[in-house]
Design a protein that fits this description.
Blueprint lengths: L5 E6 L6 H14 L4 E5 H7 L8 H20 L3 E5 L5 H10 L3 E7 L2 H7 L4 H6 L21 E4 L5 H14 L5 H9 L1
Parallel strand pairs: 1-3, 1-4, 2-3, 4-5
Helix pairs in contact: 1-7
Length: 186
């Protein structure tokens, strides 16, 4: 199957559900033989962006690096699924303007929900000053102004959000997910 590359960029607070949705979309697409790569912000930071801190400049550098890798993959017909907080709007918008087939997904959950989901206790540590520059507590998160998709993970299940993303990609003819599903089941 010939496929076009794209960048599916999931942004949102820590604990909003970016990684869960990214892996859910990836799993469904892989079952349909789509070639893809998941770039998880935490994993990329430990390898590609090792040594960067959490200042605005370092965060912007990290996001640009992830964007560069995603664009390389996309140019070569791979679906790059990025799950990264990417808190600053300006850098996300630059990526959107300078890459092709960039789909921004705002994984939206209220701060209180993200704090409740926080199994690592990072929000608690940030609130008492043990973790500096923590997005949503001591550093800002700038919500996207015009994301292509908004997944409200406090109102919908992860599976509903995955389906929402796949439906959008199908509508925009970036994938033929449902058409391929019909062919496979026939």
């Amino acid at each position: 199957m010939k496929q076009q590359g794209m960048i599916l960029w999931l942004t949102g607070l820590s604990g909003a559900g970016k990684t869960t949705i990214a892996h859910g979309v990836a799993q469904k697409l892989q079952r349909r033989n789509y070639r893809l790569e998941v770039l998880d912000g935490d994993v990329v930071r430990t390898h590609l962006s090792q040594g960067l801190g959490f200042s605005k400049e370092d965060r912007d550098t990290n996001v640009r690096r992830i964007g560069f890798v995603a664009e390389l993959l996309s140019r070569n017909g791979i679906i790059a699924i990025v799950a990264a907080i990417s808190p600053y709007r300006e850098v996300r918008d630059q990526l959107k303007q300078t890459t092709t087939n960039f789909v921004e997904v705002y994984v939206n959950a209220p701060l209180a929900v993200c704090e409740f989901r926080d199994v690592k206790g990072l929000y608690t540590k940030a609130q008492v000053g043990q973790v500096k520059h923590f997005t949503g507590i001591s550093d800002p998160y700038e919500e996207p102004l015009n994301p292509e998709i908004i997944c409200q993970t406090d109102k919908f299940t992860p599976q509903q959000c995955v389906n929402q993303v796949l439906h959008y990609l199908e509508q925009k003819r970036l994938i033929d997910f449902y058409k391929n599903l019909m062919q496979i089941s026939s």
